[in-house]
Amino acid sequence: MWRILGYSETDPLRAWSLLLSRESASFFCSADPLCLKSKQRYTASPGIDLALFDTRSEEPDSKRLRYAVSSVALVILVAFGTWYFFLRFISEKHTVEHFMDAVVAQDFQRAFQIWKSHGSYAYQDFLADWGLDGYYGPIKSYRIESASLPPNGGSGVVVVVEVSPFAPFPENNDPRSGRNKEIRLWVERSDQSLSFPL
Q1: CATH number attached to the domain at 90-195
Q2: Which distant-in-sequence residues (6+ apart) come within 8 Å of 191 by Cβ?
Q3: Distances from the Cα of 124 to the Cα of 120, 131, 174, 184, angstroms
Q4: Band of the pLDDT at 179, cuts 50, 70, 90?
Q5: 164: number of Cβ within 10 Å
Q6: 58 near 42, Cβ under 8 Å?
Q7: Cα end-to-end span (Å), the chain
Q8: SS3 sequence, the chain?
Q9: d(C-alpha 193, C-alpha 198), whole Å
Q10: Which of 31-45, 126-140, 152-166 shows the lowest per-residue confidence on average (mean pLDDT)?
């Protein structure tokens, strides 16, 4: 192709640059008025070709438009990133916080109401899990570790909570942290009911 245009094969970059210059652009844009208009905006002074890799300044209006579009795109990207990493499961985390606050306060009736039991999980079963002598009890403090979508899909969110029989919550280097338990809770998105994931 370069031989047809009159350039050697060893100089394809220069050939491509000149191909996109002002004179070559008129060959490709001769029937398109929009193309001709955009070609005229990026022409240099008469007799000088504006090639692909030439660095000439563009019109101020074009710069402003480009910066405005880039700024709006950046703001949208940052907002989406903030939502995705920090706010996506906020309502599910709040539900678990309210539930765990009731359990820590030993208000098991309120905690059971927040749990919104479906099926055969009765209040006695709830106390056997969360009560003072229950499987996870006594719970004096907690920390929400993470929230994520289940790996096999579903209509809820898995919230991981670490509970401790000590208050305040022991740090990782504290020997009492060995008694902490990690609990995975399923929060149904439709009604914010709680259960254990299957």
Answers
A1: 3.10.450
A2: 116
A3: 11, 9, 34, 20
A4: confident
A5: 21
A6: yes
A7: 64
A8: CHHHHCCCCCCHHHHHHHHCCHHHHHHHHCCCHHHHHHHHHCCCCCCCCCCCCCCCCCCHHHHHHHHHHHHHHHHHHHHHHHHHHHHCCHHHHHHHHHHHHHHHCCCHHHHHHHHCCCCCCCHHHHHHHHCCCCCCCCCCEEEEEEEECCCCCCCEEEEEEEEECCCCCCCCCCHHHHHCEEEEEEEECCCCCEECCC
A9: 15
A10: 31-45
Domain map of the chain by residue range?
11-56, 59-87, 90-195
- Amino acid identity for residue 135 in this structure: Y
- Give the list of residues 6+ apart from residue 40 with CB closer than 8 angstroms, or none: none
Whether 30 has a pLDDT exceeding 70, the answer reads no
Question: What single letter denotes the amino acid at residue 10?
Answer: T
Q: Which amino acid is at 13?
A: L
Token pair of 30, please?
């001769």
Q: Is 157 exposed, middle or buried (0-12, 13-18, 19+ CB in 10 A)?
A: buried
Q: By the 8 A CB rule, do 101 and 107 touch?
A: no
Per-residue confidence (pLDDT) for residue 46, from 0 to 100: 54
Helices 108-115 & 90-104 angle (0-180, nearest 10): 160
Q: What is the model's pLDDT at position 87? A: 76
